[in-house]
Amino acid sequence: MTSFEAWLQNHVTPHLLRGPTQLIMKTYTNKLEEVVLNTRELSVSFEFFPPKTDEMEEQLWKAISKLKSLKPNFVSVTYGAGGSTRERTHHTIKRIIDETDLKPASHLTCIAASKEEINEILRNYWKIGVRHIVALRGDMPASSPNYQLRKDGYQYASELVEGIKKIADFEISVAGYPEKHPEAKNIDEDIDYLKRKVDAGASRIITQFFFDADVYFSFVEKCRKRGINVPIVPGILPVTNVKQTKHFAKMCGAKIPKWMDQIFENLDEKQETRHLIAGIVATELCRILHNGGVNDFHFYTLNRAELTSAICHVLGVR
Ligand SMILES: Cc1cc2nc3c(=O)[nH]c(=O)nc-3n(C[C@H](O)[C@H](O)[C@H](O)COP(=O)(O)OP(=O)(O)OC[C@H]3O[C@@H](n4cnc5c(N)ncnc54)[C@H](O)[C@@H]3O)c2cc1C
Asked: What is the pTM of this model?
């Protein structure tokens, strides 16, 4: 049996491969039923990236208009490492403040900037009404493997969190890596550094994307044992493009299971089918997380609403 068949049999439709139709429906309904009937207060948040062109801007605002009715806890906007999207992130955040009732969270990376430059950005954000920062170091430039962190800058995200709290009492979220950050020697060391970010004032951890719920549960357990008690919100990436996801995953240390290649096989030209399967895969992950007690979900929307809103619908967020 291939790993994909095993996954199907264990997780999605246990009897789809063999049973009569009635059995298929009953089994599948029972599985979803756990989520659909077990309604709890859930909190969701949505992540967007700042658009580069007018066309992308239009797509982003279509997504925001659709997703805002789901009353997210907050919506966040990414920020290029080294400040490459500084103006566009600012513009998007400002538009969210001016044109919606949504609570924006601005991502901020400290790599390649001085403390004073970062502090100035923070003061400006506070002035325009931003109260939540997703504090990040940012990736080392791929083109400079021996890149030296700036002496006059915040060296790591934990220092940035400390610096932010000195500027104003922002709410702060930070990044966590269930499969460890690629630069970390091991997961325990990575969690030690994660604890520094929380001790410095972060009140939420948002995880890197992952596709195996056990990886998340084991990460949470390790964090709790290490004394990290803030919410650890799973970052959900509904995958529609495996090639692109593999590229992201390589950079951030996330693993793409083998069955993912198989489930998306030969679908490059079949967008509709690809999207349906993407919805099934992401919903299944959320279902397992939900049944495992998760009440907060952060969606990497890639500026599209359809999949995220469908998954939210299943979770009872409507
Ligand atoms: C939810 C989320 C949102 C993101 N948003 C963005 C974004 O908008 N823009 C963007 O460019 N990137 C973003 N990233 C990616 C992130 O910038 C990279 O993963 C980056 O390489 C690390 O950032 P960090 O804040 O986790 O760094 P840190 O927490 O500083 O950790 C970086 C590495 O250094 C180690 N480390 C930490 N402290 C120390 C110390 N004191 N001494 C030695 N080693 C230490 C850690 O173990 C880790 O390996 C995001 C990631 C996530 C999960």
From this structure: 0.90
